[in-house]
């Protein structure tokens, strides 16, 4: 078993109102040093590596389901052997 | 002539579409479960609003993998009429039957209110009963209705006349180019965020949605006659 | 986190039950009189939740008996998931309200969302399709970041759940007073519609019949939620504030559709059905058994579990959401399984109805509870509570009431329109889907919401009302006023009030002054309900609404549903045509104690209330309704917070019209809040007929104009107000407060 964390975020050019709102909130707390916040989501996925190459699995499920390529992009980290 | 209203597990405007077509427009309508695999015998397909599969991942994302979806895609590819409102529009973009995507409203909140719209293209099968450039009012009720597409896609939509409805006046959700509803290139698939099915009875205060259903029914009939 | 459970002896010595809300006296009574032995850990837990105020009403029961609960229309009164009222044509309306104050104070989004989820389950457990949701929300003043957070999250939670379920949130109320700052009130009401032949009850009977569990799996969330709702808050007890559940409206949508298919199409399979709400599995199962006088055996290993290693205690007390309990006729278990499978849900047999009257729980091969069913549901020690008239009431009676003096009436009106309790709530209500299912004729922002009953000429009107200020100043008169206000909202819409559901929100009942408030206000409400023939068919009690020892205003919420026999008789609350005549229905007195005017000018409320004449108001309402049914009324709006001046302005908002008014009232009296009054518009040609119908109850005061001006000539002066500007102030007041940085 391998634990993979897949991060899905808006593409660079897409307006992220959540990120903007959170940035404003952070500024209102006095943290002017924070310049930008981008909001995304992550999926912790447990993959049985005996069945298939983990990178292939991640690419397939991301492209088929987890990511909408009209808006979003993704990256992933292989966390550890579980 | 027979119309299908698709029912996904979390559809909740299915009854509204059904009643608009059946009770108000006297059309022959049938509910079709997402578990079905065929649309044989139907002349048009309607995808209702709601939260198809809870929409926890993205609105409409999981509906694309339901049993009925290949039949809907085939139906659309054959040039038959497919209509999606609200969640139905989101599903059509997720399934690739319409370009672009619908993201969270700029306000980040769900918005239910009546908005002003311009009928940009009254030459589609869904809009022939509207006047060109007619201003109408329809209710919206969504959290994810901000239309997004890349610049090249938007240009193509504009150029091809695929933008059918535009917000006129206030843009309630941040949609690019004020887009409220679009068709595919062929013009047989329409997706829109506003709810025409909520605006078909004077009792409820608005009948601006009626011409859409009347257009569709008239054009289905025309096709039928042409085929004969 | 499996606890090493204490033995019976250890429980006796270490008294953990005190923390679970069971008193020493109750524990001893259970040991000596009911069981004649020491209860084990699981059993003690069962008693603690079932004997909590939330489940047993042990403190409020003596008072609740005051309410009328029957008339010829009532098909089901209190005691089931929800009350049911006959609306003719073989149809019935089903409704109930419930508070979720404590969970919402802790985790406002989920607290409010699961409150809505719970009340919806109560409605479909009766076999009815939920058609509308309403709410009644009371928050602190909008001047702190925490309050704004609570408001935003509660509103989002209500919308999030209802919108996803496809049940329109059509109305409600929202008020703001300092006393709710640490303990907001979140009351939700749901209304359902059914065919009378589909009526269901929560009963488990017939030896050998199956007890089936459907819906979400059981986790450790919300354990002791019911007990938690029966204790007050203080900042030191943060850790205790962890018992909050998370809602899944998609799961509930599936559960609702599956249960409705079962109740409406396969009634012969079903013996009883009940929601697993407060105190989860224990409360639903033993109530179902108790109502039928049955014995029950449950095998807890079969309960679908979300977390590993759950103890019997945890399984029984979990308040995981979106679960229902069914009693299914033996032999139909597989049919039920298949029905639920079709919705992607699991239905599991977890026990049977057995001979005798024992409540038997088995877990991992052991009997973990073996107690009489009735000991949990019927044998709770009812408590007689001390009562004492609060000093503030006695003092107010000794003193003269406050008499306002206004120098600039127009300016006062502008300020009052911007008071959050009066100002437009659109920024919140437009986040609710108020139209889904396309039956909403009148949505949020009117006196009452109105929904047509599809396929008939009928419509249902519904409202929620609670004004804690009046009840605080005089519980009995305030209680009457709460019922009058709800009825007036329905009458203004053209509806005949049918029946009432309530949420009784009070402080700690062990405080004799608070118990007196509870008792007196119930007496007032009961008297008004009897006068109006609107029995109380369902409801709930929420006590211990306190924060650091400070109680909220006693705030009973009245939810009322009315019937409109013909869609033609739905009356709008906004003026309709130029030149229509304006009438005030009902006499205005100097009622300023607890008014918006008093709060605006003095920053507080105080004084004593004038008695209300229920019979007189009832007669007036009957006349007005008759005039409406004869087609003599174009619009009607009830006079409430802010009095006549506010009501006049409100009737023009959203229209292109203005008003030209001449009255003998003083400038101050324009803001008096005398109960049971209306502003009504009538077509000029119907004036005589209308006046004949109303006898001396209606006074002509002016007409509708086309110029968007409110012109009022009163006894000692006159003013003109630009209504577009006034409407702007009214609409922007709350968005402005919500945005401002503190």
Automatic annotation (TrEMBL), chain B:
Active site location: 86 (nucleophile), 195, 197
InterPro entries per UniProt: Class_I_gatase-like (IPR029062), PRibForGlyAmidine_synth_PurQ (IPR010075)
Keyword annotations from UniProtKB, A to Z: ATP-binding, Cytoplasm, Glutamine amidotransferase, Hydrolase, Ligase, Nucleotide-binding, Purine biosynthesis
Compartment(s): Cytoplasm
Cellular component terms (Gene Ontology): cytoplasm
Pfam family, one: GATase_5
Example GO BP: 'de novo' IMP biosynthetic process
Catalytic activity of the protein: L-glutamine + H2O = L-glutamate + NH4(+); N(2)-formyl-N(1)-(5-phospho-beta-D-ribosyl)glycinamide + L-glutamine + ATP + H2O = 2-formamido-N(1)-(5-O-phospho-beta-D-ribosyl)acetamidine + L-glutamate + ADP + phosphate + H(+)
Domain of life: Bacteria
Recorded metabolic or biological pathway in which this protein acts: Purine metabolism; IMP biosynthesis via de novo pathway; 5-amino-1-(5-phospho-D-ribosyl)imidazole from N(2)-formyl-N(1)-(5-phospho-D-ribosyl)glycinamide: step 1/2
Single GO molecular function: phosphoribosylformylglycinamidine synthase activity
Enzyme Commission code: 6.3.5.3, 3.5.1.2
Subunit structure: Part of the FGAM synthase complex composed of 1 PurL, 1 PurQ and 2 PurS subunits.
Biological role: Part of the phosphoribosylformylglycinamidine synthase complex involved in the purines biosynthetic pathway. Catalyzes the ATP-dependent conversion of formylglycinamide ribonucleotide (FGAR) and glutamine to yield formylglycinamidine ribonucleotide (FGAM) and glutamate. The FGAM synthase complex is composed of three subunits. PurQ produces an ammonia molecule by converting glutamine to glutamate. PurL transfers the ammonia molecule to FGAR to form FGAM in an ATP-dependent manner.
PANTHER family with a match to the protein in the record: PHOSPHORIBOSYLFORMYLGLYCINAMIDINE SYNTHASE SUBUNIT PURQ
Name of the protein in its database record: Phosphoribosylformylglycinamidine synthase subunit PurQ
Organism: Liquorilactobacillus sucicola DSM 21376 = JCM 15457
């Amino acid at each position: 078993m391998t634990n993979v964390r897949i991060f899905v975020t808006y593409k660079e050019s897409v307006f992220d109102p959540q990120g903007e709102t959170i940035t404003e909130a952070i500024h209102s707390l006095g943290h002017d040093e924070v310049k930008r916040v981008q909001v995304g989501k992550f999926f912790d996925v447990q993959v049985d590596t005996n069945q298939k190459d983990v990178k292939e699995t991640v690419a397939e499920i991301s492209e088929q389901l987890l990511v909408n390529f009209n808006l979003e992009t993704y990256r992933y980290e292989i966390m550890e052997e579980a | 002539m027979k119309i299908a209203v698709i029912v996904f597990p979390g559809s909740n405007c299915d009854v509204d579409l059904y009643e608009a077509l059946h009770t108000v427009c006297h059309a022959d309508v049938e509910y079709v479960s997402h578990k079905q695999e065929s649309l044989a015998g139907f002349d048009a397909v309607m995808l209702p609003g709601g939260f198809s599969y809870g929409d926890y991942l993205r609105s409409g994302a999981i509906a694309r993998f339901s049993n009925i979806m290949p039949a809907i895609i085939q139906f659309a590819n054959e040039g038959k009429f497919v209509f999606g409102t609200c969640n139905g529009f989101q599903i059509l973009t997720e399934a690739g039957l319409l370009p672009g995507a619908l993201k969270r409203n700029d306000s980040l909140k769900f918005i239910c209110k009546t908005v002003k719209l311009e009928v940009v293209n009254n030459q589609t099968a869904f809009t022939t009963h509207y006047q060109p450039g007619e201003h109408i009012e329809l209710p919206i009720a969504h959290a994810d209705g901000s239309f997004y597409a890349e610049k090249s896609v938007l240009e193509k939509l504009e150029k091809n006349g695929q933008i059918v409805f535009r917000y006129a006046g206030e843009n309630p959700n941040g949609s690019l180019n004020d887009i409220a509803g679009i068709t595919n290139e062929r013009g047989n698939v329409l997706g829109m965020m506003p709810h025409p099915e909520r605006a078909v009875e004077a009792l409820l205060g608005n009948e601006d949605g009626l011409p859409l259903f009347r257009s569709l029914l008239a054009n289905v009939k025309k096709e039928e006659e042409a085929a004969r | 986190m499996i606890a090493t459970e204490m033995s019976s002896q250890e429980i006796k010595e270490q008294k953990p039950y005190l923390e679970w809300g069971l008193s020493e006296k109750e524990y001893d009574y259970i040991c000596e009189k009911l069981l004649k032995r020491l209860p084990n850990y699981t059993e003690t837990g069962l008693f603690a939740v079932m004997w909590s105020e939330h489940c047993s009403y042990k403190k409020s029961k003596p008072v609740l008996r005051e309410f009328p609960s029957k008339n010829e229309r009532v098909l089901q009164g209190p005691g089931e998931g929800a009350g049911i009222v006959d609306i003719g044509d073989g149809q019935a309306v089903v409704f109930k309200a419930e508070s979720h104050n404590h969970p919402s104070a802790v985790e406002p989004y989920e607290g409010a969302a699961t409150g809505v989820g719970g009340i919806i389950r109560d409605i479909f457990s009766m076999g009815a399709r939920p058609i509308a949701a309403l709410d009644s929300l009371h928050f602190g003043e909008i001047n702190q970041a925490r309050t704004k957070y609570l408001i935003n999250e509660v509103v989002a939670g209500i919308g999030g759940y209802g919108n996803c379920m496809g049940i329109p949130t059509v109305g409600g109320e929202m008020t703001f007073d300092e006393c709710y700052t640490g303990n907001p009130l979140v009351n939700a009401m749901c209304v359902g519609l059914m065919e009378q032949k589909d009526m269901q009850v929560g009963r488990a009977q017939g030896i050998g019949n199956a007890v089936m569990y459907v819906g979400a799996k059981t986790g450790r969330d919300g354990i002791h939620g019911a007990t938690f709702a029966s204790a007050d808050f203080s900042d030191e007890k943060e850790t205790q504030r962890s018992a909050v559940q998370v809602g899944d409206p998609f799961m509930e949508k599936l559960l609702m559709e599956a249960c409705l298919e079962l109740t409406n199409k396969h009634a012969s399979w079903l013996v009883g059905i009940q929601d697993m709400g407060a105190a989860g599995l224990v409360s639903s199962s033993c109530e179902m058994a108790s109502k039928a006088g049955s014995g029950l055996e449950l095998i807890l290993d079969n309960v679908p579990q979300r977390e590993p290693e759950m103890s019997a205690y945890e399984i029984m007390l979990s308040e995981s959401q979106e679960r229902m309990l069914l009693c299914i006729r033996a032999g139909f278990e597989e049919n039920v399984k298949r029905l639920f499978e079709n919705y992607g849900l699991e239905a599991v047999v977890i026990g049977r109805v057995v001979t005798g009257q024992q409540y038997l729980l088995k877990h991992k091969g052991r009997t973990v509870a073996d107690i009489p069913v009735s000991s949990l549901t019927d044998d709770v020690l009812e408590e007689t509570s001390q009562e004492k008239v609060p000093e503030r009431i006695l003092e107010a009676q000794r003193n003269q009431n406050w008499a306002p003096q206004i120098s600039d009436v127009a300016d006062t009106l502008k300020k009052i329109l911007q008071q959050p309790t009066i100002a437009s709530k659109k920024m919140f209500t437009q986040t609710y889907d108020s139209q889904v299912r396309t039956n909403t004729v009148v949505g949020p922002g009117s006196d009452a919401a109105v929904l047509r009953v599809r396929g008939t000429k009928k419509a249902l009107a519904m409202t929620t009302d609670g004004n804690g200020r009046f009840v605080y100043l005089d519980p009995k008169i305030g209680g009457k006023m709460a019922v009058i206000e709800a009825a007036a909202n329905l009458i203004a819409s053209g509806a005949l009030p049918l029946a009432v559901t309530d949420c009784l929100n009070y402080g700690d009942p062990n405080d004799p002054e608070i118990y007196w408030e509870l008792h007196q206000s119930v007496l007032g409400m009961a008297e008004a309900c009897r006068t109006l023939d609107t029995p109380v068919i369902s409801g709930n009690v929420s006590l211990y609404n306190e924060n650091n020892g400070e109680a909220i205003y006693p705030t009973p919420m009245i939810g009322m549903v009315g019937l409109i026999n013909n869609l033609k008789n739905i009356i709008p609350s906004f003026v309709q045509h130029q030149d229509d005549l304006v009438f005030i229905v009902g006499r205005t007195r100097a009622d300023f104690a607890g008014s918006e005017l008093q709060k605006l000018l003095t920053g507080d409320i105080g004084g004593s209330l004038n008695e209300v004449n229920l019979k007189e108001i009832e007669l007036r309402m009957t006349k007005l309704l008759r005039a409406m049914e004869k087609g003599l009324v174009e619009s009607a709006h009830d006079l409430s917070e802010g009095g006549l001046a506010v009501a006049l302005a409100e009737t023009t908002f959203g229209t292109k019209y203005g008003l030209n008014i001449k009255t003998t009232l003083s400038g101050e009296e324009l803001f008096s809040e005398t109960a049971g009054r209306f502003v009504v518009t009538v077509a000029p040609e119907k004036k005589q007929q209308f006046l004949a119908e109303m006898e001396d109850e209606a006074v002509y005061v002016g007409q509708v104009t086309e110029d968007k001006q409110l012109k009022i000539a009163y006894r000692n002066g006159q003013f003109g107000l630009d209504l577009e500007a006034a409407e702007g102030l009214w609409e922007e007041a709350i968005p402005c407060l919500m945005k401002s940085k503190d």
